[in-house]
Amino acid sequence: MITEPGTAGEQEARPRVAVSSCLLGEEVRYNGGHSRDRFLTGDLDPYVDWVPVCPEMEAGLGTPRETLRQERSDDGPRLVTRQTRVDLTDRMTELAGRRAAELARLDVDGYVFKAKSPTCGIHGVPVYRADGTPADRRNRGLFSGIVMERSPLLPVEDEGRLHDALLRESFVERVFAHARLRALLSADWRPRDLVTFHARHKMQLLAHDPQLYRTAGRVVAAAGGHPRAEVAARYTDAFQRTLSTKATTGKNVNVLQHCLGMLVLDPVRRADLVDVIDAYQAGLVPLSVPTTLLRHHARGEAAAYVRDQTYFSPFPDALRLRHHVPR
Predict the structure, then answer these.
(1) CA distance 304 to 185
(2) Each residue of 98-155: pLDDT tens digit?
(3) What is the three-state SS of 292-306?
(4) Residue 263: CB partners within 8 Å, gap ≥ 6?
(5) What is the value of pTM for the model shown?
């Protein structure tokens, strides 16, 4: 059964997030230590189910171990041990392909990788020349690159980039949206359930990409005339593509104004909300201010359609991820 928004059933859509094991405090790094991340193990931990992964340990390298690096070759970067020059490329490639398939079957809702790692980094991984000097610092890790290639719409970040408030909010928003869709499609859903789901996510999707929102809407409108598996695949693709597009201040302002237009308010309260939306647009207040006020007035006016939009609570409020002022 598909539950209505705000019920206990919806709260059970806990994200499943793959993560580099060292970021959870597991002592699996090359030196026998860990890289525990406070946001992941503190703020986010109560709300997600972790799927820890350490490619080096799963490849049998153990800990402590010799450090690795990527080296340039005619066939592309090779993963080698720094001192003994053992080439681990084929072993890690096989492991990455197998793990990517397992994570796809598990339908994880996101992945947090270890930054700058020659296996797990997603940005800025150096590739070295044979003499040990860096040739390129724009590569991905061998393992993470394959996982991302196999699941291009999977929300991914590294713990370093999650220190940026805007990137952290965007990643967590996508992860929780992915989990809600997974919960819907894993149940005994009907086209009407997909219609309800899409309607609840309208404002959230519009804040990312209005055109892709309409693409997803066409899938929903035709859902009754196609096999469920086909509809689920097409909607998932459109939904995830929409959320992978960056939300902007301008698109958020359009959504806020759209929601305001659906509320029946006296002139004074409407003017106050217009001022707050303008302040957000000018970079004077965070998004949490207009969204909190709009949600409050929607409850007071019993405007259920606005009140129940996931846009106003895309992740647990306790995470406090919308309190940064837009740049």
Answers:
(1) 24
(2) 999 999 999 999 999 999 999 999 999 999 998 888 888 889 999 999 999 999 999 9
(3) HHHHHHHHHCCCHHH
(4) 270, 294, 297, 298, 301, 303, 306
(5) 0.93
